[in-house]
Amino acid sequence: MDTFHVMKRILLQFRRDKRSVALMVVAPLLVLSLMWMVLDHDETNLELGAVDVPESMLEKLSSDTLVVETLSSSRAEEKLDEGTLDAVLYFENQETSLLLEGSDPNAAGAIQKELQSLRANQQISMNVEYYHGSEDLGLFDYVGPALIGFFVFFFVFIVGGVSFLRERTQGTLERLLATPIKRSEIVFGYLAGFGLFTILQSLVIASFSIYILGVFMDGSFFYVLIVTILLALAALSLGTLVSAFAENEFQMIQFIPLIIVPQVFFSGLFPIEGLGTWVQVIGQMMPLTYGAEAMRGIMLREASFAEIQLEVYILLGFTALFTTLNIFALKKHRRL
């Protein structure tokens, strides 16, 4: 009988907490749908530039997954800089050479596999070089920049959101709101206080990944630090915003499948080039997408600030947006 009463109490709790019941159904469906979209799509085409390659040789290159474009030498290098080519095939003085873009080891390996038949049929030797990276670049080196950004974003989101929630549930925030202090001053104060911690966290995570774990690094560590700090500030402002809609820490954790998990699929850990345009648009609405792209550009392609400035400004824009919404979200608590 006691067991029945305990069971009844739990069921009544779920009945009152409709958010938990909805998340138990919606969150798994959302994650499964994202996994289906990302993992169950047509194979991405490989982009190969051809410079002065004879027509007879080009005919041997045709395949379902290899797209060959005839280019001048200067234009091919421009497209390698832009990251829109996976490799360039040169033919000069009866010699063939392959210049791999190199920042994606999967694409580099696939290109070389596609060209194996050409080397066998034409009985030619091919000198292989790397525009970025090297032949020792592994899968962890490729996903490492995105992982650094993800862990910074994830833990700052959780710690910042839960800490801000505790300020509200323990009455500290209510007492502050009862004073003449402005809501904007409260938000900026919390963000600045936690922001100092995020700078230290970003420095530790980036340094450990690059100098201890040996993740491939071809750019400026200073730029890596800037991007990780901006990601952390975006996560902090988003976490504090979300905490305004949670009544306890458990509800705060419930937002992870809805806010954090979807961003993982668009952070570069999984290829999305072959997905529909509308799916990629969803990815462009997520801060981690831009942070991971900037990190990969710096660490794998030695990107300058001019090449990552768009991502930097977008991350600043996300932080400004979430901070502004935070100020408005505090309004309802002041009324209480």
UniProtKB/TrEMBL annotation:
<dbReference type="GO" id="GO:0140359">
    <property type="term" value="F:ABC-type transporter activity"/>
</dbReference>
<feature type="transmembrane region" description="Helical">
    <location>
        <begin position="220"/>
        <end position="246"/>
    </location>
</feature>
<dbReference type="InterPro" id="IPR047817">
    <property type="entry name" value="ABC2_TM_bact-type"/>
</dbReference>
<keyword id="KW-1133">Transmembrane helix</keyword>
<keyword id="KW-1003">Cell membrane</keyword>
<dbReference type="GO" id="GO:0005886">
    <property type="term" value="C:plasma membrane"/>
</dbReference>
<dbReference type="InterPro" id="IPR051449">
    <property type="entry name" value="ABC-2_transporter_component"/>
</dbReference>
<dbReference type="InterPro" id="IPR013525">
    <property type="entry name" value="ABC2_TM"/>
</dbReference>
<keyword id="KW-0812">Transmembrane</keyword>
<feature type="transmembrane region" description="Helical">
    <location>
        <begin position="312"/>
        <end position="330"/>
    </location>
</feature>
<protein>
    <submittedName>
        <fullName>ABC-2 type transport system permease protein</fullName>
    </submittedName>
</protein>
<feature type="transmembrane region" description="Helical">
    <location>
        <begin position="186"/>
        <end position="214"/>
    </location>
</feature>
<dbReference type="Pfam" id="PF12698">
    <property type="entry name" value="ABC2_membrane_3"/>
</dbReference>
<feature type="transmembrane region" description="Helical">
    <location>
        <begin position="258"/>
        <end position="279"/>
    </location>
</feature>
<feature type="transmembrane region" description="Helical">
    <location>
        <begin position="21"/>
        <end position="39"/>
    </location>
</feature>
<keyword id="KW-0813">Transport</keyword>
<comment type="similarity">
    <text>Belongs to the ABC-2 integral membrane protein family.</text>
</comment>
<feature type="transmembrane region" description="Helical">
    <location>
        <begin position="142"/>
        <end position="165"/>
    </location>
</feature>
<feature type="domain" description="ABC transmembrane type-2">
    <location>
        <begin position="108"/>
        <end position="333"/>
    </location>
</feature>
<keyword id="KW-0472">Membrane</keyword>
